[in-house]
Amino acid sequence: MLLIGYGCDASLLLDSTAGNQAEKDDPPNISVRSFYVIDDAKVKLEAACPHTVSCADIVGIAARDVVIMVCGHTLGFSHCSSFESRLRNFSSVHDVDPTMNKEFAQKLRTKCSKPNRDITAGELLDSTSSTFDNNYYKQLVAGKGVFGSDQVLFSDYRTGWIVESFAKNQSVFFKEFAASMVNLGNVGVIEDGGKVRLNCHVVN
């Protein structure tokens, strides 16, 4: 199961309609799958407590309990479309994002050629993508972050020291990640103005 970028309102679950392409059908989300898990949970929850548990609640729980580690980007994959702006014509001064390791940038340029006829082409967010470890942070220190928004965590003095500490000590990363997940699980549910969808694939 893989749920990435599901949106705070579980918008990734919505189906496309005439003249309106759903988020799930956008190229960056091609690899997202196993929606039936959410559907099955929704059916059972509606039977037990109707109009109570929202689709976003289910996705949040599923993401935490099934694939929560994706949120740390130590596991995951990105298509070229999500980071290719860093590889060519980055700015008026730099063709490639200067925060990116040069050899790594060349590797990604080869994978994400122009024109790119392979819509599935991309890069793992962590070279040890099948293992939950601190290698993702080691890559940031080495300038090998796939996303610019990730790499800036190391280049910014306010957060760089945290990235470096996680890169140096995996135990510290594990401890802090666990604490963050507990805090995330305690975030309150929006009650005012929100809607509980009966079917996660369509709006009420």
Automatic annotation (TrEMBL):
Q: Catalysed reaction(s)?
A: 2 a phenolic donor + H2O2 = 2 a phenolic radical donor + 2 H2O
> Which top-level enzyme class is recorded in the Swiss-Prot or TrEMBL entry?
oxidoreductase
What's the short name of a Pfam family annotated to this entry? peroxidase
Q: Report the EC code(s) recorded for this entry.
A: 1.11.1.7
* Cofactor(s), names only, from the UniProt record: Ca(2+); heme b
For this protein, what does the record note about how its cofactor is bound?
Answer: Binds 2 calcium ions per subunit. Binds 1 heme b (iron(II)-protoporphyrin IX) group per subunit.
Q: What is an annotated GO biological process for this record, any one?
A: response to oxidative stress
* Disulfide bonds, paired cysteine numbers: C55-C200, C80-C112
Listed PROSITE patterns: PEROXIDASE_4
- Residues that hold Ca(2+) 2 according to the record: T74, T128, D133
| Record-level Gene Ontology MF annotations | heme binding; lactoperoxidase activity; metal ion binding
Q: Where is the Plant heme peroxidase family profile domain?
A: 7-204
Q: Which residues take part in binding heme b?
A: H73
**Keywords of this entry:** Calcium, Disulfide bond, Heme, Iron, Metal-binding, Oxidoreductase, Peroxidase
Q: Which residues bind Ca(2+) 1?
A: G7, D9, S11, E23
Of which family is this protein a member? Belongs to the peroxidase family.
Q: What does this protein do?
A: Removal of H(2)O(2), oxidation of toxic reductants, biosynthesis and degradation of lignin, suberization, auxin catabolism, response to environmental stresses such as wounding, pathogen attack and oxidative stress. These functions might be dependent on each isozyme/isoform in each plant tissue.
Name-wise, this protein is peroxidase
| Taxonomic source organism | Malus domestica (Apple)
